[in-house]
Each structure stands twice: as structure tokens, then as C-alpha cells.
Specification:
Elements: H1 9-31, E1 44-48, H2 57-70, E2 75-79, E3 90-91, H3 98-104, H4 106-114, E4 120-122, H5 126-137, E5 141-145, E6 157-163, E7 191-195, H6 202-219, E8 222-225, E9 253-258, H7 263-272, E10 276-282
Parallel strand pairs: 1-5, 1-6, 2-4, 2-5, 6-7, 7-8, 9-10
Antiparallel strand pairs: 3-4
């Protein structure tokens, strides 16, 4: 998504204003109890964002699940299943094959394949998906991927993920920008994670820290900052069980192929690893 031109902006200002008004009305309805949240009976950790697109929610979901496992706490993941054909609620197969991603969405398929011991359930209704998980596998904790706006599911903890490389105009309401709701919504979070700080322009990171700080003074949520790095790579001929050092990419001539929300940050990471990028074939987010 590119910034709307000055000619287009006046045409989409009205729908953006309507979108923002509806989002604020919905938020107020939940805050004041006019819309009901449903407690599924086990703690729920929600991981989400404020803007549409890739901020790092799903990798953070994987990190949280890994940490729970190290602590001996069983968990299950619930997700909308964006991009899949299934509406759910249904459990995601853990094989990682292409048809699994086609049915359940690429991110749930990846989460299920990377850790078959942690079941993944998808459903447009996250409450129904969580109840199915509790019935089928009895987890101690539900981790809800991309659920910050899905407030019908009661949560014990809200984690908001912000991508520090996103320009300020992204925080304008859709379709003027990429914001699903106002930045002020982070007040209902307990933790805010800022990702990719090593890739962000200094002025952008300074603005984001200052903005977060203003809201943090009122509610006192925790703030964590993360750098992004390539941990390694999996040679196609050896399969995903063989993670090799990123140092092997130095001076290698590579072709990049991506179908993610923020492809240029991926490209920058590969460039920083020392690789010579011959070409970057960029497909849309969640491309098959």
C-alpha cells in the first residue's frame, strides 16, 4: 500500500472518517458494556496490532507459545484463518503442505507445522474456536493471534505489536492509512512490543517512542523493543530440519521471493547479511 496522492486524499477522506467513527463507536460500546465479552474459562493472551499488515504478530505468537512450553504450561493457538477457505471452528492440520495453507491460511499452517505439540484452531468466531480448543485439548492458556480488535473474546492480557518502520501516515484510518483503530486504543494493552527497531529511520523511531510514551503515562503498560535478524536459512534440498548459519549468505548472489506484509524490511535484512540480491519478486501478502 502506497500513500494516497494529494488528488485522491479528498475523495477518500469521507470514508476514512466514517470508518474511524464506527471504530470509535464500537470501542465505546465494549468499554461501557453495551457489547458483551465472553470469558471462555481459561486465561487468554491476545496478540494483535493497530494497523493492517505485517508487524510481527505471528512470530511473536510463536515466541509466546515457546516460552509457555518452557514453563511447562500447555497452550493452544486460535486464529481467524485469514486467506483460507475454512470458516471454522476447526483444528489445523500440522503437515505444512500447500493444501493445509490453502484450507486454513498460511500463518495458522506455519504455526501448526513448526510446533505440532501446540494445537492451532481457526475460526471467524474466535470464541467458538477457543471453546473447541478447550473441549478437545484442555490447554491451560489460549494464545489468540491477531485478536486485538476481536473484543468479543475476553482476554487476560492484551499485547500490541507496532512495526517501527511504518511511516506516520499508516496510523491514519483506513483507507487514508492502514489504521484499524486509533493509536489511543493501546491504552487497553498490558504490553506494547516495538519491532524492527534496527531497520527504522531515526526520526520515525523517535516519533513512535514519544507517541507511545504519552499513552503509557496514563496506563503504565510495559514496552519492549526488538531488533530483527536472520537466524539462518533452510536449504531447499535439505528440508526444514536443517537450519544453517546466515553467515553462509555473505557474498552469495540470491533471488528473493516474498508474499508478506512488509517485503522491503525482509529485503533490507538480507542485504544487511551481506548477500548480493539479484532480484526481489514481490507478491501480495498471503499470496498462495
Amino acid at each position: 500500500m502506497t500513500k494516497p496522492s494529494s488528488l485522491i486524499e479528498p475523495l477518500i477522506a469521507l470514508p476514512a472518517g466514517v470508518f474511524r467513527a464506527l471504530a470509535l463507536t464500537r470501542r465505546a460500546a465494549y468499554d461501557r458494556g453495551f457489547l458483551r465479552t465472553i470469558d471462555v474459562g481459561v486465561p487468554v493472551i491476545s496478540i494483535g496490532n493497530i494497523t493492517a499488515g505485517g508487524t510481527g504478530k505471528t512470530p511473536l505468537t510463536a515466541m509466546v507459545v515457546d516460552d509457555l512450553k518452557k514453563r511447562g504450561i500447555s497452550s493452544a493457538i486460535v486464529s481467524r484463518g485469514y486467506g483460507g477457505t475454512e470458516t471454522g471452528p476447526i483444528r489445523v492440520g500440522s503437515g505444512g503442505q500447500r493444501d493445509v495453507a490453502r484450507r486454513f491460511g498460511d500463518e495458522p499452517a506455519w504455526l501448526a507445522a513448526r510446533d505440532p505439540d501446540t494445537p492451532v484452531f481457526i475460526g471467524a468466531d474466535r470464541v467458538a474456536a477457543a471453546l473447541m480448543a478447550i473441549r478437545d485439548v484442555q490447554p491451560k492458556v489460549i494464545v489468540a493471534d491477531d485478536a486485538f480488535q476481536h473484543r468479543r473474546l475476553h482476554r487476560s492480557m492484551d499485547v500490541v505489536v507496532l512495526d517501527s518502520t511504518q511511516p506516520t501516515w499508516h496510523y491514519r484510518p483506513l483507507p487514508l492509512g492502514r489504521a484499524r483503530e486509533d493509536l489511543s486504543s493501546m491504552r487497553r494493552a498490558q504490553s506494547v512490543f516495538i519491532t524492527k527497531i534496527n531497520l527504522a529511520p531515526v526520526e520515525q523511531l523517535t516519533w513512535l517512542r514519544k507517541t507511545i510514551g504519552a499513552f503509557r503515562e496514563r496506563t503504565g503498560f510495559s514496552v519492549f523493543e526488538f531488533e530483527s535478524a536472520i537466524a539462518g536459512y533452510y536449504p531447499l534440498e535439505k528440508g526444514p530440519a536443517c537450519l544453517e548459519s546466515q553467515s553462509d549468505l555473505r557474498k552469495a548472489r540470491v533471488l528473493l521471493v516474498s508474499g508478506i506484509g512488509r517485503p522491503h524490511t525482509f529485503e533490507e535484512l538480507v542485504r544487511k547479511s551481506g548477500a548480493d540480491i539479484a532480484e526481489h519478486m514481490i507478491f501480495r501478502d498471503h499470496h498462495s
